[in-house]
Specification:
This protein is an all-alpha fold. The chain is built from 3 helices and no strands.
């Protein structure tokens, strides 16, 4: 289950990053909201992966890869 949380974290972070460019300096509302929600969901999902037993080094290696 920890791997599923890590995958959700990675997908959320990618959505947030792509929305960051589309937000055009946070002047467009929908992409700006997606940035905040995407990064928030990514950190929550990463914390859940770590709580469920994944080692920090392993999670970071997969996240960064």
């Amino acid at each position: 289950m920890a791997w599923a949380w890590l995958l959700a974290a990675i997908v959320s972070e990618v959505v947030g990053t792509l929305s960051l460019r589309a937000s055009e300096g946070f002047t467009r509302p929908l992409p700006s909201i997606l940035v905040v929600v995407g990064y928030g969901a990514a950190f929550y999902a990463l914390s859940q992966a770590l709580v469920r037993g994944m080692a920090v080094g392993q999670a970071y290696a997969v996240w960064a890869g």
